[in-house]
User: What shape does this take?
Amino acid sequence: MDEIDFSIVEYFGSSDSSDCGYCRGQNNGLRMTHGMWAHTMSIQVYQALIDNGWRRSGKYCYKPVMKQTCCPQYTIKCDVQANRLSKSQKNSLKRFFNFIEHGEKPKASAKVGENSASVSSPVVQNPKKLKETVRDSTKHDGKSKSKATKKRYQRYQRRVEKLRLKSMTDADIEEHFKKKREAKLTKQKPKQIQDYFNFTDAAKNKFAVKLIKSADASCFEPHKQTEFEVYRQYQTTIHKDKKKELTMKQFERFLVHSPLSYVSLGPLHEGGSFHQQYWVNDQLIAVGVIDILELCLSSVYLFNDPQYSFLSLGRISALYEIMFTRQIQESVDNFKYYYMGYYIHSCPKMRYKGDFAGSFLSCPETYTWHPIEDVKPLLDESKYARFASKDVSPSPPASLRDLLILYQQSAMPYFRYRELRATKNNKEEDKEILELCQLIGQKAAACKLILYRA
Ligand SMILES: [Zn+2]
Assistant: This one.
């Protein structure tokens, strides 16, 4: 496959809308974003852009006007090596495992947090449930504890007697128990995500995950209609979208089309845009739309069959994606982050994204990363906050020298373009281009970014 390493974008300036999917207009103000259309884009440029506060929706890239928008959106990433499973995440994984392996369907009340990396995902938080779990684990009183210890000691004594009967020396017996303890400790090492996706051949349900390129028609077309049906079910049930607005065209523009070109990331993996399909038996139950970039796996969206919402598929797929990031990391240098999109502190439904241990938020002025637990208090005080200290300089803008302009079918340096169009009053245009340079940052422009001008 040809590797296209240049990127072509068209800048649209800023826009505002009263239709904010997070607060539905309740947060005093409008949703404000800068936008550009990406005709084609390398994974290097997109990596640089998301590290500068951008995200994509189809081929459209947008960046919130952080100081002004009604619901500021902070880029969040998780260092997958630092990630540890929380108790409630383990419970979700356990329920999922039991459903696949043993066919056990959890009770409806067991539903904890449902999530996706989407715009305006509803999340059902259940703090009561979590509290109960904590209470359960602190139930033991002193009396029953000492009784248990006594019984345990008696069991130990009986085992020692048995071993002596086998004419083992005391030293042998000591060695025997030492080995047993070691074996038990390795067995007890904290469970990893992959342990919950390890099903036996006798599992009651068959589970499979298929990764397909969204641009590869031969792989994608046969499943397109199936995906669309699940998408429509999800949007109408979970987001209350109107069915007639959910056309195949809209689905494709939003979740199938991507500006990213595919590129090899070593012998095992490829960068670009993918659909990760989750199948149970012959049913498509969920689809994670993901981008595999230079340094990270970035979650674009997740939709699932609402009939399976008892499995907390938003959470399960996020954990699966963290595990997948670790797998890619094994063979791709510096690949170590899972991007969940935007974290919106002012929208309680979206705070679940902060629940993944090892997460960082990007400072909206310097684009430096800060542990989420350290900066959350700032967001409790004010929905807009700078995280870096005052002495950190703001992130540098793209240099005009790096920027190429596509004009009359040829790409040229900005200064050449300015000469060609010297007769025009260029003040307005220069202002717009400098604004774009500020928004995309130095790194994106240095990776062969071409700005299209009509
Ligand atoms: Zn809002």
The CA atoms of residues 397 and 438 lie 4 Å apart.
